[in-house]
Design a protein that fits this description.
The chain contains twelve helices and 38 strands. The strands form nine sheets. It has an eight-stranded mixed β-sheet with strand order 31-32-34-33-35-36-37-38, with helices on both faces. With about 700 residues, the protein is an alpha+beta fold.
Length: about 700
Amino acid sequence: MIAPRSSSKEPCLRLTLVLALLSAAPAVAQQQPIAAPADAPTRRFTGADLFGLSIAADPQISPDGRTIVYVRRTADVMTDRVQSSLWLIDVATGRQSPFAAQGSDPRWSPDGTRVAYVARDGEQSQLFVRWIATGTSARVTGFPGDPQALAWSPDGTRLAYVATVAGEATTLGKAPPKPEGAKWAEPLTVIDRVNYRNDGPGYVKPGRDHLFVVAADGGAPQQLTFGAFDDGGPLSWTPDGRAIVFAAIRGPEAERQVMNSDLIAVDTTSGAMRTLTTRDGPDAQPRISPDGTRIAWLGFDDKRRSYENTQLYLGDRNAGSPRSLTAALDRGIEDAIWAADGRSLYASYDDHGQRRIARIGLDGRTTPLVDNVAGGGLDRPYTGGEFSVARGGTIAYTGGDGSAPADVWVSSGGKSRRLTQLNAVMTGAKTLAPIRKIAVTAPDGRAIDAWLATPANRTPGQRVPLILEIHGGPNSAYGPGFATDMQLYAAAGYAVLWTNPRGSTSYGEEFANLIDKKYPSDDYGDLIAAVDAAIADGTADPDNLFVTGGSGGGVLTAWIVGKTDRFKAAATQKPVINWASEALTMDNTLFTSRYWFSKLPWEDPMSYWNRSPLSLVGNVKTPTLVVVGSDDYRTPVSESEQYYAALQIRGVPTALVKVPGASHGGFTARPSQSAAKASAIIAWFNRYRAKPSGSRTD
């Protein structure tokens, strides 16, 4: 952003002075560079630059492959929120045009003449349809519920979606009668659900998510599902339009299930339901074949382990005789879409820290197609990205690399082409940190993927302070993508190292489960080996090491400083500090004790204690900052406060930073807070940063 000039005369006076110096003393002028004005834009990446970034998401290609509608997410500096708008792209020319000033979830009608989408209308989101030929939009829903998971009927006459149906709050007893005009306290809140709060939305409000169908031209919607259950998308119509298949956890023990969803078919006329799958494990994301003779879906057998590969299954029209198409791939499938001829599916999955798209034959044969899928977030380089496929096989997807946030790409005939460059002006004005992969060998000889970003002004052979940035999950993966945290750290003079230690996804089921029932543990050795590799590489100053990470990375940060004093300072972000208290206060109450431990907290308390960073706090000498969102219900604020209190009691330098209104998943959702959080961590590290040790490479 260019600062306004204080006076129209000032630039002229400056120019006059420069010209006088040049004419009077040319030799001096050639030797002495002219200093940039104090208010001149900097080429360093700064927190203010977060407001100038845009990221592409949810690219939906038209059935004929000629046009893409996508979501463009851009920060609004006046509201400090990321706003979503919809844009059209002509695939042949790359020419863009605005579609809707705000909106999300665009979906093409089967004939390609209309696009359904969700947009705010007053206090609620509603479902709209835009006719492409005329550019006219019409609202087709008009009740509270925030529609999602849109799906067109095969004949284009109806739209199915999921929306929330409000319910009645539970009560116990009642207050005495209130006099007219009296101002009394709020009524009591009675909680009787197992999972009574969710990270992000907060405390669960009375109501359930159910399926609806509405005419594409508008009218009264028809509710198809009912009951004390939550039904979810995506929704898949049968070719004859008589049924929709979806996924849900239903039945008398639904409240006590964690991931045991089943595929369910609902009749679009009568609302009669049939449960198609019954195994112990999640069955979700159903996709009915174009001829209606088969169903593909994602799922796995639940073995109560930390991680299972999500596999692509194929069954008959009732999901009978299921078989996995991707068991031999040994990678978790993220999404799958049928090819128009029904002979294969397009699927996305992560491999070695990079999302890819491949064609999966009905015999399980895998043909790689795209290897640079990216997107999802801005602050850290998690794998991600979305795609859609036209009838002719052209793939629209979000992709990119470490130089910028995700753009829209297309792939056809084995060739990929970038259609947008949403951040070209901003990135062209900035000197960004270069990113490269470095080789890391774990103590047991395993190869560990790691990437290193270095300050843009670093000279070859110069050692610089190093920040080890650890991903969360812990079953997730980083990759070589663009990330604002990494760029801000590098702009402050730090090299930034991020890795995929054991337990990370995208390397197969065995690698991910090396930490099953023993996290944190041997992943510590992988992280330290990566730091040693950055030192041996000649980049990291061994006297200036720092460590940070969020969620699972916050756990490992607190674990590391309890194990070693090598790091000058640390910043643990939204960590778990005490596994017993986390298991009983997190939003998905049944998860931790079921999947990360063998017994309940009161049955085997020492297992929980021995893996809690709080058990090592007596060893900590490293100045450690604690950072958490004030509305975090995944790793609740009480976890961070326990650690902060323990460090204070021990006299270890510490501070507690709370991000107001931020949930676990929305930790950096507001750009100003994302920038301020990174700035606080940099300030903490700068406080303990030693004088550079020089450019030695021995």
